Amino acid sequence: MNVLQPKDWIEPVGYVNGVHAPPGRLVFIAGQVGWNAQQEFPGDDLVAQFEQALCNVLAVLAEAGGEPRHICRITAYCSDKPAYLAARPELGRVWRRLMGRHYPAMSMIFVAALLDEPGKIELEATAVVP
User: Fold this and answer.
1) 37: buried, middle or exposed (CB in 10 Å: 19+, 13-18, 0-12)?
2) CB 67 within 8 A of CB 61
3) Helix 88-99 × helix 46-63 angle, to 10°
4) Residue 85 in contact with residue 65, Cβ under 8 Å?
5) Which residues contact 90 (CB under 8 A, 6 or more apart)?
6) For 20-59, how does the pLDDT look when each residue is reduced to its tens digit (9 = 90+)?
7) What pairing do the DSSP bridges indicate for beta strands 105-110 and 71-78?
8) Domain formed by 24-129, architecture
9) Domain boundaries in the chain?
10) Alpha-carbon span 47 to 93, nearest angstrom
11) What is the pTM of this model?
């Protein structure tokens, strides 16, 4: 995966502006919320939900033989902007534990609500598995 970064732009933190992926199989992962395999939320804590949602993304990716480094794009939808901003250091620690220093192209979109209550964050991803 090659990062696309215009030379005169400031480096982004926690994501990249663009990715050029080598040939491979495209894997599209539907929005994953922070519930477990039985579709039960551990509670309404944003960090716990983020960790579970990211684990869910990685579990679906593993079904295609993929690894975290194969993710090219993640779109995050969050219904609690103040909680997200307050939790950024903790979210970063969860990210590094599960994803290492791999940062795909990302978008964060704040929404009024998610379909599944008490969901606060939903992650969808695209990967290219060699």
Assistant:
1) exposed
2) yes
3) 20
4) no
5) 47
6) 998 999 999 999 999 999 999 989 999 999 999 999 999 9
7) parallel
8) 2-Layer Sandwich (3.30)
9) 24-129
10) 10
11) 0.94
